[in-house]
Amino acid sequence: MRWLGGMATRTRSTRRPVERATARPRARATTAIEIPRNADAVTLDVEGREVRLTNLRKPFWGDEGILKGDLLRYYAAVAPVLLPHLRDRAMVMKRYPNGAYGKCFWMKRAPEPRPAWVETCTITHKSANVIDFPVVQDLATLLWIVNLGCIDLNPWYARCDRVDHPDWLHFDLDPGPGASFDDVRAAALVVREALETFAMPAFAKTTGSSGIHVYVPIVRGPHQKEVWTFAKAFARAIAGEHPDLLTSEYRIADRPHGRVLVDYNQNAWGRTLASIYSPRPKPGATVSTPVGWEEVARGIAMADFTIATVPARVARLGDLWAPLLAPADRYDLATVL
User: Fold this and answer.
1) What's CA 182's distance to the chain center, in Å?
2) 167-184 tens-digit pLDDT
3) Maximum CA pair distance of the chain?
4) Phi-psi region of 271 (alpha: psi -120 to 50; beta: other; left: phi over 0)
5) Is the peptide bond before 327 cis (omega within 30 degrees of 0)?
6) Of 193, 163, 140, which Cα lies nearest the Cα of 92?
């Protein structure tokens, strides 16, 4: 594969040496909780912390009869596999006070007043503005933040102790006008094959909207701008090799019809993607769900993964993205920069 910007031509190789990162917490058991269906509000003891949940019978997907309480029950069910992917990361809140089809707003700063046990991540922006983001470390905080009206969760892709050094590289495969989800599946397989030329481990999940996210676990080391630069070069190169399927053109007006966008720009500083296991404000309450590459090749549909079906899938298959948390086998991106 020939790379832009002076990157060398590379052929399929064996896995490159990886740095052994500090071990991260794995999935921890969470306390089973009961969120009532016949009450508008409840105060729960969640692992010794008092959490007030409100408007439980408020419609959040009105056409489907899905309530805010259903959303909270879903998050409580998947918390054991979700929380390890959120811990130690700043959370950007996207709040839907009137449900999935109402107006939403973004919020970075952890609201006041808030429980004393909600941890924060202090990040200084280029404007010198200092923001204390909430961090979802446990079930109590997860329920607290969802109760604020957050349907999907949007964590940083770098951890709080080194916010300029991500440990994920990702590509958002987004169908443009005239492109189908089958085209997105084909695009994901092409991206995986290209990543394999670098021996990069790749993991896929549905976006819960219309596309597929492809993630690569990387060793923390390269600066965010270096990660973004690699992602941009990769996206442009692969789009150049598959012009009938892919585009990396970021300007909407310049994108060719019927192509899948290989969006690299979400690797930019402070950008986020909807997290693993996040429901989306879409019909049917579809969920951003990890999928195996054999499923991508065989055929899947976005509607296969909803808040009604994903908990049983997790109980059957476990967390398909658990390897993304492992300290070993993270790709050392510094070797190709």
Assistant:
1) 21
2) 999 999 999 999 999 999
3) 63
4) beta
5) no
6) 163
